[in-house]
From TrEMBL:
Keywords: Hydrolase. It holds the Pfam family Hydrolase. The lineage of its organism: Bacteria, Bacillati, Bacillota, Erysipelotrichia, Erysipelotrichales. The keyword Hydrolase applies. One of its GO terms (molecular function) is (S)-2-haloacid dehalogenase activity. Transmembrane segments: none annotated. This is Predicted hydrolase (HAD superfamily).
C-alpha cells in the first residue's frame, strides 16, 4: 500500500510570524496597541473564515483589514492590503522542513499539501519548497476552509486517501485535527 503524508502549510511548514510582525509594526507606528491590533486581526480572520459563507482569501483579508479599521477607529489598515499579501508571499520555510521533506520523498512517501490559501499564493510557497509535493489542495479549490469537514472529504478524493496509508501532519489542532476526531 502506498504511503502518503498530508501537511498543513501555515505554521507547520512556513513561518507566518512575519505577518504578525508587520501588523505589530503598523500598529506601533500609528500609536496603537500592537497586542489589541493583532488580536482584532486574528479574531476577524477566524470569524470570517469559519463563521461566514466562503469568500476568497484575498477578499477575506480585505474584509479583516476593514474590520481592523472599524474596531480601532482608523482608516489605515485597508491601505496595507498589498503589504499584507506580500508578507504572505514571502513566508519563509522553517529551516528543518526541506531536509525532512526531501528525506521523506527519498523514502518513497507521496507528499500532499492542504492549505487555507489561494492558488496564487500557493505558487510562491511551492517554489520555496522546490515543488516537492505530489498533490496540493487549497481553499480556492474546495470553496471552504479547514477545519470544515468538506475540505478533508475533498482531500480524501483528490489524494485517493482511502487506498493509501495516510498520516496528516499539522501544527494547528483547531484547523486540522478537531474535525477529524
Amino acid at each position: 500500500m502506498k504511503k502518503i503524508l498530508t501537511f498543513d502549510c501555515y505554521g507547520t511548514l512556513l513561518d507566518t510570524s512575519s505577518l504578525y510582525d508587520l501588523i505589530e509594526n503598523i500598529a506601533k507606528t500609528n500609536n496603537l496597541s500592537s497586542i489589541e491590533t493583532i488580536h482584532i486581526f486574528s479574531s476577524y480572520e477566524d470569524r470570517l473564515m469559519y463563521g461566514e459563507p466562503f469568500i476568497s482569501y484575498e477578499q477575506l483579508i480585505k474584509n479583516v483589514l476593514s474590520y481592523c479599521d472599524m474596531e480601532l477607529k482608523t482608516s489605515l489598515f485597508s491601505n496595507y492590503y498589498d503589504a499584507i499579501m506580500k508578507a504572505h508571499q514571502e513566508f519563509p520555510v522553517f529551516d528543518d522542513v526541506m531536509p525532512c521533506l526531501t528525506s521523506l520523498k527519498d523514502k518513497g512517501y507521496e507528499l500532499a499539501l492542504m492549505s487555507n490559501t489561494t492558488n496564487s499564493l500557493m505558487k510562491y510557497h511551492l517554489l520555496k519548497m522546490n515543488n516537492i509535493f505530489d498533490y496540493v489542495l487549497t481553499s480556492d479549490e474546495t470553496k471552504c476552509y479547514k477545519p470544515n469537514l468538506e475540505f478533508f472529504r475533498l482531500a480524501e478524493i483528490k489524494f485517493d486517501l482511502i487506498n493509501k496509508d495516510h498520516t496528516h501532519i499539522a501544527k494547528g489542532y483547531w484547523w486540522d485535527i478537531v474535525e477529524l476526531e
